[in-house]
Design goal:
It is a single chain. By secondary structure, this protein is mainly beta. The chain contains 10 helices and 51 strands. A 7-stranded parallel β-sheet has the order 1-2-12-15-16-17-20. The longest helix has 17 residues, at 313-329. The protein is globular, with a radius of gyration of 28 Å. It starts with a helix and ends with a strand.
Amino acid sequence: MRTSLALVSFFVVGISAVFAASTAPQTAPATRAPELTILGPNYPRAFFFRATEGQAANLATSYESWDADFSRLMGIIGKALDEEVLGREARNPEFFTRFKRAHPEQVVLLHFNGNARDPIYHTEKYFPGHWIHRQATMILADVPAQSGETTIKVRDASDFQVNTGRYKNANDDIALFGVTRDGHHDWNYCEQVQLVAVDRPAGTIRVRRGCYGTRPLAFKVGAARAAAHQAEGPWGRTNHLMWYYNFATHCPRDAEGKTAADRLADDLASWFGPGGKLAAFDGLEFDVMHHETRGDTDGDGEPDHGVIDAINRYGIGMIEFARQLRTRLGPARIIQGDGALGPGGRRSQRAFGILNGIESEGFPNLQDWAFDDWSGGLNRHAFWTANAHPPAFSYINHKWNQSVPGKPGEHQNPEVPFSRHRLSFAAAQFTDAAICYSFAPARDRAGQFGIWDELRGGTLQRPGWLGRPEGPALHVATTAPDLLAGTDWARRIGGPVTTRSTVAGVRIQPTDSTAARLGFTLRDLPTNGRDLVVQLTAQAETRAGYPREMARFLECELGGGVLNLIRGTPDQVGIGRRGKPETPLRPETGARLQPQPRTSIGGRTLPAYSIHPPYLDGKGYVFWTRDVDVPAAAELRFSIGMSDRAPGRSDGVWFKVLAAELTGGRVGPFTPLFERSTQAHAWMPCTVPLERFAGKRVRLKFVADCGPKDNATTDQGFWGDVKIVRAGLRDTDVTSPAHSMSWVNDRTFTSTFYFHDVRSPTVDLTFSLDGAESVTIAAVNGYARPDTMYRVFEHGLVLANPSRQSVTFDPATLTPGRQYQRLQGVPTQDPRTNNGEPVTGPITLGERDAVFLLRVK
């Protein structure tokens, strides 16, 4: 039976071999990882999430009762500092430390915000340049050095926000700066203030003076400016907005020559060092640890989003911070980072080889209890396990949440069947990931915090009950005939690229060496039914100007009979304001264009771009473009629609489509193809013939204008399901676009992509990577089967079916000579599935389900 290279590559037999030699200095002694049960050979690897911190902080909870509750798995994670949530530092360091001393084999981890900090929490050694700010505006009248509240006249008050933040109950924190001769913020002449009110028509802000350890200063007209802090949260109604750390490599340095990254590393090294309050902890996980940011990082008053000279210096800075922290804390400390931020994890840190692994909030991600990105979740964890600092230690935080209507910032668990929980737990077993959970089952009969049956063997109550894995997880689809066997798949590669055969495979690079992305398509791949599994074995060059650790984000899109134009980031995104030339989109203008994969209007859900024309610094339009090769007999199909608040408030958005021919790298004049206005909260299907452009390369431009009255009120609109289709082809015969992701670097890795609901006899696979550097493909394989999986353990068997139809497994065929029974589960979970009965024949799993079986012979 053929096995998945993606999973074989990270299967580890025995923990004793995972440590690499290191000469890096170690600030603090740490438990050597092989002593931790959670890094041992037995599965499932499970521990308790942040319920630990809330109960520890509760003064009514004794240590003894808390310990009895949370010592029943393989460890704990939680907040023990007040950097994000107030009230965690009074007792939590003591409780967690006592727990570690009582249970040295269990892991104890700190949960720490990797993006921002409460400005009242130990920020004395940080200086103004260590924080990221938003767009600055000039101060237009002298400001006296006075306490209390002051009204300040500014050039543009549009960016300052009241009733903002997660709960819409916070006001901006603002920095007032002098201005240096070179036009930058004067970091040494700065006052922190809190916004009280804003009067945009009058161009004034009213602020509370001398906040966050600063004193009121005098500012002169024309030599001073104001900028709000880039902030997140607050994470709790009684907590504060949190200021973004400036991790960019060009972060301004303080009087001691230190950056924000240096100061944060100092803090953590002190807390984890000998005598520190966290000295007993095994390590930490950085929540919301970003690869990208928003705002002004170089202090010139203009948002650069951490990108200077087309290089993401913020992302590089995050890697360098992780490298510094690894040196300071030593090779044995566990350091993890958030790994599923943004679509598919695109926005997450990329400190491969430095961190031990990632947290995935939800599997495949926080809102995907439909498991649409099953493959992306598996690829993400598989790649990290293959590219982590040893020992590899990633985990799934089992949770999904949805917003509570009418309650800003509030979330609730969705109602899902037990089968979805089991499928998430199975994914952890397939990827060597640990699992903790925020989505908890009912409490035990004794009143203790509930534990999922699959994580401790039901009534066995034995963590690690599956024992050692006897091999990697297996994709059953790979036992089917390879749809591409005997074909020259390299001849199917198309797009603005060149190809060349090498010893390692087919090398692909863009024809334009300055392109921001490398994109290519494998055309007309054969199918045979509704399910398709594709495996891609590839490696890629490191991007010029970036460290080797920074892997490249790989997006895979499938479509059949259709060219999808709603995918990832458009080729161009910009705005046009009346009387001004077009410019790239700037969020501070109020303009917005965001991918929104699932946009529901009137019971119909479409992939969409959510848009809003500019309104804060002039009125006009927001646009996006795609460069396409138009096939013969094609037409453009799409839907337009407005938000639920638009009717009665908006006077409509004018949606327009224009086209320009591309010849020899030049863009011809744009020709209008379509224009229509709507204010209705309904999808409006539209079709535009493209016969005149058949066989030509064309730039399509999609414009959303606030209209001739320049009224942008509630102009929240959507471009939905934009695609090019063969004229006359029914939508029911089209394979709708579907997306998944993986990572690639300079080491060969096999990614697996599963697609369901394939409707066309052939499909196109489009791949996109950031950067223009080449990618080399060693193999492409395709299988017309659902991506059912299983993994064999010494004491059990885990089966999973992520497809939309029932699938039957035969344990006797998979593991000859062995016998199994179902877990005996607790009555408050799923006793129909976990009923303790022997397995006497094949097992049929329903759609999107999994089962954990106990070996009895």
